[in-house]
């Protein structure tokens, strides 16, 4: 199986932009998905297929992918966006991998 | 409304067996893959395995193959995660999650089951 690597933490002031990267060798061939997890809660999907946003997810969440790196961008960060964010992908053998997780702190 | 409701908190001793459950509602349960995901304290999410309740086709992560058993009973819309002999290192939160059909992401999650293994 392969790995997806994320920075452990990102700090951002309210109203600023947070960018979270996810690096993995399979990403040029496989989609990246992103989940938000707040303490004591289940993960929630915020981006699928690199850059699609599920209904109900605010427009300030966006995604992109280039080469071996996928990026989740939160524009105009709000206090409620403080959470841990995980990327996820799947390999050609239909097995799934999650990234190492990034804690976003809103200063 | 799609819902996955998991069984409650478990506190067990090493060596004991345990089966936790995940009951789906609001959709055609047999037609969607259900995954189990482990979240250990202070660690990331780990995919354990996935089952298709319609025919019980199951795939395991190499890290969990032989350590747990995933099963499902489509007649009662429920998936299970079973340990035959728990270890202290199995202490974690466990989530079930529904896979979006035709894609490889999880669009609905259970609330989680906390399993604590301690002597």
Question: Could you give a short description of this structure?
Answer:
The complex is a heterodimer of chains A (107) and B (119). With 107 residues, chain A is mainly β.
Please characterize this protein's 3D structure.
- The complex is a heterodimer of chains A (107) and B (119).
- Chain A has 107 residues and is mostly beta strands.
- Helix content of chain A is 0%, strand content 44%.
- Chain A is built from no helices and nine strands.
- Chain A has strands spanning 9-12, 18-23, 33-37, 44-47, 61-66, 69-74, 83-90, 96-98, 102-106.
- In chain A, strands 1, 3, 4, 7, 8 and 9 form a six-stranded mixed β-sheet that branches.
- The N and C termini of chain A lie far apart (36 Å).
- By secondary structure, chain B is an all-beta fold.
- Chain B has strands at residues 3-6, 10-12, 18-25, 34-39, 45-52, 57-60, 69-73, 78-83, 92-99, 106-109, 113-117.
- In chain B, strands 2, 4, 5, 6, 9, 10 and 11 form a seven-stranded mixed β-sheet that branches.
- Chain B is globular.
- The termini of chain B are far apart.
- Chains A and B meet through strand 3, strand 7 and strand 8 of A and strand 5 and strand 10 of B.
Kindly report the average pLDDT value of chain B. 96
Proportion of helical residues of chain B = under 10%
Number of strand segments of chain A: 9
Mean pLDDT of chain A: 94
Rg of Cα set of chain A: 13 Å
SSE order of chain A = EEEEEEEEE
Question: What is the SS-derived class of chain A?
Answer: mainly beta
The biggest chain-chain interface is: A-B, 25 and 23 residues
Separation, N- and C-terminal Cα atoms of chain B: 40 Å
How big is the Rg of chain B? Answer: 14 Å
Count up the helices of chain A. 0
Structural shape of chain B: globular
The unreliable regions of chain B are none
